[in-house]
Write a structure and sequence with these properties.
With 374 residues, the protein is an alpha+beta fold. The chain is built from 12 helices and 10 strands.
């Protein structure tokens, strides 16, 4: 493959079975040939959970599984979406009158979000229509960002049709302002202390017992009405207890683990995998106990993965279900997959329908790309 500009490659479609199959299905569906293809990978958070929106870095990894879309711009203003998976029904709408029903998480809404996001960001009107055929092999609803990959693909599709360079979009965001709402990272920055010192401040300042709304108001010197209208989000206004100590302790300790993980990767000591695994195990314990975003099924899966050779294993994604990520030596991989399959999916008293996609190995994958046929 020869590079052709940022995030673009020319390929011989006939040499790539998945692209060739998608091209043939597109022709069967729309009676024409795609002009280009867009690909965006799923991702797994190796470490760093529930800290990004607090202002801290996480350590994600693109996986090999991805979303792939075949695209043909058309002269009409109709946007036609189809999916290679028959479970996802076809959808069509006007490219210049995008309506997204937020109450229904239908698959095409994720595409529409990416399409409309680009449209609104650049203040565009009178967009051309297009035919799109989507193919994905990221396990859905598993915490591996299948929906985000589809949104990303849709944005790239729209930019490519418009002939815009992705770097223009990224450059615009460099000047964005921070949120006006204080985040935990900003508290640390204003105090000018380390994450380890913030953990001690958390110990000294907050008590482990849950806070009531009234106690929060006394601490801040505000009324209950001010707490509900100025600080709490609509879905937390009726919360009766706040575990401030536990949540702050998770965020600061997890942020420190991400930095430790990065440092170990850079220094590459002889026992690197063991050290990285220990950090992943600590991360899971904190997610389970301090942030309370795990569940018994995930805890069981983590234990099984460690038992059969994972140096480290933890929940990934938002939690409360989803999936786990494990770091496994390559020579142990075949036995690891077989044993976890048997111990969790075949012997579990849960009603699991095992699929090949439910348990898989992956190396770091590539980023988002636009493919043009050579």
């Amino acid at each position: 493959m020869a590079a052709e500009g940022p995030a673009t490659r020319r390929v011989q479609v006939a040499e790539h079975p998945r692209l060739l199959k998608l091209k043939e299905m597109f022709n069967s569906k729309f009676g024409s040939i795609p002009k280009f293809y867009v690909r965006a990978p799923g991702r797994v958070n190796i470490i760093g959970e529930h800290i990004d929106y607090c202002g801290y870095s996480v350590l994600p990894m693109a996986i090999e599984q991805d979303m792939l879309i075949a695209v043909e711009p058309v002269k009409t203003q109709t946007l036609q979406l189809a999916n290679t998976n028959p479970l996802y029904t076809d959808f069509s709408t006007s490219a210049n009158n995008i309506q997204i029903d937020k109450t229904k998480p239908l698959w095409h809404n994720y595409f529409l979000c990416g399409f409309k996001g680009i449209q609104e960001h650049f203040g565009l009107s009178s967009l051309t229509g297009m035919n799109c055929l989507v193919d994905g092999n990221i396990p859905p609803s598993s915490g591996l960002s299948s929906s985000s990959a589809l949104v990303c693909c849709a944005g790239l599709v729209t930019l490519t049709v418009l002939g815009m360079n992705l770097s223009k979009l990224l450059a615009k965001y460099r000047g964005l302002q921070w949120d006006k709402v204080l985040r935990l990272e900003e508290v640390q920055a204003k105090l000018g202390v380390s994450l380890e010192e913030m953990l001690q401040i958390t110990e000294d300042t907050l008590h482990p017992e849950p806070y009531s709304p009234e106690e929060v108001c006394r601490c801040l010197g505000i009324s209950l009405q001010e707490l509900r209208t100025q600080i709490l989000s609509p879905n937390t206004q009726d919360v009766l207890t706040f575990k401030l100590y536990q949540r702050a302790k998770h965020v600061y300790s997890e942020a420190a683990r991400v930095l430790q993980f990065k440092k170990i990767c850079e220094e590459a000591p002889d026992n690197m995998v063991q050290l990285l695994g220990e950090l992943m195990n600590q991360s899971h314990a904190s997610c389970r106990d301090m942030y309370e975003c795990s569940c018994p099924e995930v805890d069981q899966l983590v234990d099984i993965c460690r038992k059969f050779g994972a140096q480290g294993s933890r929940l990934t994604g938002a939690g409360w279900g989803g999936c786990t990520v494990s770091i496994v030596p390559a020579d142990k991989l075949p036995s690891f997959l077989a044993n976890v399959h048997e111990a969790y999916y075949q012997r579990s008293d849960q009603d699991f329908t095992f699929e090949k996609q439910s348990l898989f190995a992956t190396k770091p994958g590539g980023g988002a790309l636009v493919f043009l046929e050579a």
